[in-house]
Amino acid sequence: MTGVVVVAPTRVRVRVTVSGLVQGVGFRPFVYVTASALGLTGRVANTPAGVLAEVEGDTVAVTEFRRRLVAEAPPLAVVEAVEHGEVPARGGTGFTIEATTDGEGRTLASPDVATCSDCLAELADPGDRRHRHPFITCTNCGPRFTIITRLPYDRAGTTMADFAMCAACRAEYDDPTDRRFHAQPIACHDCGPTLELVVGGDLRSGEGALRGARDLLAAGCIVAVKGLGGYHLACDAGNGAAVAELRRRKRRGDKPFAVMTRDLAAAERLVRATGPERRLLTGGRRPIVLLPRREGAAVAAAVAPGHPLLGLMLPYTPLHVLLLEEPGPRSLVMTSGNRSGEPIVTDDQDALDRLASLADGWLRHDRRIEVPCDDSVARFVAGAELPLRRSRGHAPLPVALPFDVSPVLATGGDLKNTCAVASGRYAWLSQHVGDLDDLATQDALASSVAHLEELTGVDPGLVVTDAHPGYRAHRWARERAGDRPLRTVQHHHAHVASVMGEHGLAGGEEVIGVAFDGTGYGDDGAVWGGEVLVAGYGSYRRAAHLRYVPLAGGDASVRRPYRMALAHLWAAGVAWDDDLPAVGVCPVTERGVLRHQLETGFGAVPTSSMGRLFDAVSSLVGVRHTVDYEAEAAIELEVLAAGAAGAPDPVPTAYSFEVTGDEPLVADPAPVVRAVVADVRAGTAPDLIAARFHAAVADLVVRLAVHERTRSGLRTVALAGGVFQNAVLLESAERLLAGRGFTVLRPRLLPPHDGGLALGQILVGSRVRPRQ
Amino acid sequence: MGHGGGGAMSGELIEQLFLPAYGGAARADLGDSAVLAVPGLREGARLAFSTDSFVVRPMFFPGGSIGDLAVNGTVNDLAMSGATPLYLSTAYILSEGTALADIGRVATAVGKAAESAGVQLVTGDTKVVDSGSGDGVYVNTAGIGIVPAGVEIGPTRAEVGDVVLVSGDIGVHGIAVMSCREGLEFGTRIESDTAALHGLVADLLGTGVDVRVLRDPTRGGVSATLNEIARASGVGIELVERDLPIPPEVKDACGLLGLDPLQVANEGKLLAVVPADGAEQVLEAMRRHPLGSGAARIGRCVAEHPRMVVARTGLGGTRVVDLPIGEQLPRIC
Ligand SMILES: [Fe+3]
Ligand SMILES: [Mg+2]
Ligand SMILES: [Zn+2]
Ligand SMILES: [Zn+2]
Questions:
Q1: What is the pTM assigned to this prediction?
Q2: For residue B85, what are the domain limits?
Q3: What is the predicted pLDDT for the residue at B2?
Q4: Do B62 and B189 contact (CB within 8 A), yes or no?
Q5: Is A735 a catalytic residue?
Q6: Which of A691, A22, A111 is nearest to A452 (CA)?
Q7: What confidence category does residue B21 fall into, taking pLDDT thresholds of 50, 70 and 90?
Q8: Given this model, what pLDDT does residue A176 score?
Q9: B4 — pLDDT class (breaks 50, 70, 90)
Q10: What is the C-alpha to C-alpha distance for residues A605 and B327, in angstroms, rounded to an integer?
């Protein structure tokens, strides 16, 4: 018997919950449009657990709906999970978008996103009702993280709650087919925030404020500009006197400033950029990108004295676009509006008080900034992005974890602090908090933790921190832990675990972790920093380290690299003769005291720091004897080495560490130090010495890795720690290791320095069994 | 081992080891001196009781010796509770082989210091241990004194708005002992300022101002002492960096060694927390006394950042002044 079986289309109703970063990114109108196109009826709502949709119709259409939900999600959405279940069909017609409901659960907040091309077009269109509106935004762009006060993400949960929508904005906001449907920061000339310029006792608003600010900048003045995550201090990047004045007022030393140009074309007149670098510059995250400066670029030398790279970013708010219009400077120095060492200023009154001695005028607006968020910084090394600061455009995007964790808080380290919370398979890293020396930055840590907990709903039952008993991050964790268990993680173990974690290595895996940085507290009470750790998440073994030299006087030897040079000379048995630049700059009284400290260990701690060895060599070569900011000496050595990279070295393997011992191996820098001294005395060009030193360190990495592979069979190397911000070293270590058959993991999502510690702390702290 | 450094680690030893081990027999406030109600004293007067052990090396240093410290240290602990010191005990632990002449010099110093402080040495003890168990002379002193009626000085009494005063230069003693012990040449010779402070205390109590807290910032320096006061009283303390009387030679030596002057020990100095409206009066009284001629106002108690000490820097920022840990480790990465 043959026949045709006709299956009547079955009508089903399915309830779908989409969790992840799905609020404030146009997800509900997307659901509405998708369901309508498939002829489905039902409803969609925001809940604290995510977007909840019920769709009803025939099975095929419902299945297709579920496919499109993931495949065609809005650009800013990050779908974490989709749960679905059948519910009784109800019939009905049409599709409704419902108001936000309360309940249990968690959704994710979006980072701030640079102004989209649609909004930019409207901004420039004289016929548009938002023509030249400095706060134009839509569901695809604009402020998020920095204006959200609580979840769920709706207008009342942002600092835009202070502004009542006008009828026209309200209509767009309520229209599911509009690009601004439920765009919480929606605003226009009639109802949005307003611009204001404060100069002396003078107040100007709107276009007058903009024009006034541009005039000030053109005249070489310094203007505090309120942006997304705080105030910038801006001045004309082409005006040497203005930049020098900004340096003087900020007491900034020689640390490079970032520059914002009008557009990509203007940027490319200053720097050279590759395809991926251009995409990073123009993308939604819009970080500061370090790029090689063009010969004769039209920026003042004082922007980045003696530095071949320039930190560049493009406008990411409508206000920036308007500020950089003609007439006026085409490139602006844009540096964080803060007093040296303090967090970026977000509050208008604070800006007037704290930036009083720094700025000549204040260009500001009345949209409050809920949390500070500095610009992110990145560079490309060997074709891949190397984050140097993960902040605006990233925070609070989660990082996926390789295994489940119970709710946990990690407080990070003391320099370039970022903290993190995690639960389940996600960790949320805070924006850049800063160096915890001062009270204001410690307060910023406390509010970052509170804001992260609010945004993620994570209620940490465990607190993890660095093992250094004197770290503020450690003390803060101890004070705040209360009844919760507190676990400490060795600094370099956290560095290595962080790199393992961002690469998704599973819970049981082990790597050869090369952790090179400035200082971290070691298990033996020494200051570590030139370490090879065979590490899993739960434990590690110290496989190799640099030979200890005395770090005399703690921070004094960090701020004065010549002291580290003298320490390494002493350890290498080289006399302190005045012909060596590092010896010459050390005052005679200090030499006597230092020698005593080195010989007796008084006020000195043994250190295996690779960062300090870079400092020492930098001083030995005569490049930099004292520093204004961390790693300055090492960076200048890298610049020298990079300059020499083109010229073939007549003696390519001139320097070599001596590796002895067994468990752990000890790498002695003495032969390298002696070779550097011999080259200095022979008048070898400093850039060549710098290049040889970098080659010796890269060679050491390979030798130690090969040795460990022979011992344990491990073939994966993780490169971690602040020293790997050094592009010359990172590039050559990566290349040489790959050439020897290693799989190389390097930081891609998080910075190699202490700004990436918190993730490692989370992974190790969640894995380690508490000691009894 | 940093447990004797006077910082976070000694605090931990007391809280986590000694107090639990003592059980019900100890009073929780193991302060520098105990102020006790004793039957038979005049109405309102109380007994102050304190003990301290002295292990400083070298035993003799510019400006003093272990003998001076042994007397002045305990006298000062009593004075800081507002007591008039009366009687001291002295106990010596001598390692075998210590030169008799050295023991004699220490004993002479003890006698002279007691005489000039106006206290009587009323009981004592001497033990000799094998050489190897120690070296030279260690001294323990205990003392009693009377706190007059109406004087209520204690670490918990600092209030928001109060002013913090110091009686003179900071860091001198610690640097003197250190440079002598280590044989360091800093260019300028620095002498210890060890002295008995109860005369100075009597003068400032004589102003009638309600002095809240008095402390001698010995081990762990001004930093440790102020952190303890901030914690005990639940207030924040804000120092003004440029008002801190730190002599240039102390600054230089600290710079060379990588030390924080606020963490360096003092002997002949006191910190006073007083109400703002009496601060000027107390300051004047201190300055009239030879041991307080360099007195200065260095900060105040604030409601912000409770239990924390910060220093306002020249740049207008606020640096956190930490309780020192056992040794000074770099935090810079
Ligand atoms: Fe580090
Ligand atoms: Mg004492
Ligand atoms: Zn847009
Ligand atoms: Zn409007």
A1: 0.89
A2: 27-147
A3: 37
A4: yes
A5: no
A6: A111
A7: confident
A8: 79
A9: very low
A10: 9
Residue A579 Cα to chain centre, angstroms: 42
Return the structure tokens found at A71. Answer: 């495949």
Q: What is the pLDDT of residue B333?
A: 30
CB of A410 closer than 8 Å to CB of A758:
yes
How many residues belong to chain B?
333
Exactly one of A11, A13, A43, A46 is catalytic; name it.
Answer: A46
Choose one of B147, B179, B199: the last residue of a domain: B147
- Tally of domains in chain B: 2
The answer to whether the CB of A448 falls within 8 A of the CB of A433 is yes
Topology given in CATH for the domain delimited by A544-714: Nucleotidyltransferase; domain 5 (3.30.420)
Q: Are residues B108 and B205 in the same domain?
A: no
Which of A197, A310, A196 has the alpha carbon at shortest distance from A260?
A: A310
B318 → closest Cβ in A438, A468, A603: A438
Cα–ligand 3 centroid distance for A136 (angstroms): 7
Mean pLDDT computed over every residue of chain B = 88
CATH architecture of A396-503+757-767: 2-Layer Sandwich (3.30)
CATH of A195-365, one of 3.30.470.10, 3.40.190.10, 3.90.870.30, 3.40.50.150: 3.90.870.30
- The reply to whether B118 and B191 lie within a common domain is no
Residue A138 Cα to ligand 3 midpoint, Å, equals 4
Q: Classify domain A109-192 by CATH architecture.
A: Alpha-Beta Complex (3.90)
For residue A65, give the H/E element and its range: helix A59-71
Please give the Cα distance from A715 to A712 (Å, whole number).
9
Q: Do B141 and B122 form a contact (C-beta atoms < 8 A)?
A: no
- Looking at residue A577, its pLDDT comes to 97
CA–CA separation, A99 and A560 (whole Å) = 61
A475 chain-B contacts, CB cut-off 8 A: 322
Q: How many CB atoms lie within 10 A of CB A320?
A: 24
Angle formed by the axes of helices A610-621 and A561-571, nearest 10°: 100
Describe the strand order of the beta sheet including B137-147 as a list of residue ranges. Answer: B33-36, B46-54, B137-147, B84-95, B120-129
**What residues pack around ion ligand 2 (CB closer than 5 A)?**
B 32, 52, 77
Report ipTM for this prediction: 0.85
What residue has token string 């703690």? A554
Q: For chain A, list residues with pLDDT below 70.
A: 1-9, 24, 99-108, 645-653, 769-772
> Crossing angle of helices A757-767/A491-502, nearest 10°?
100
> Mind spelling out the 3-state secondary structure of A599-611?
HHCCCEEEECCHH
Residue written as token pair 């060492």: A341
Q: What is the pLDDT of residues B248-288, one digit of tens each?
A: 989 988 888 888 899 999 999 999 999 999 999 999 999 99
Query: What pLDDT does residue B134 have?
Result: 60
Distances (CA, A) of A639 to A210, A582, B227: 39, 19, 44
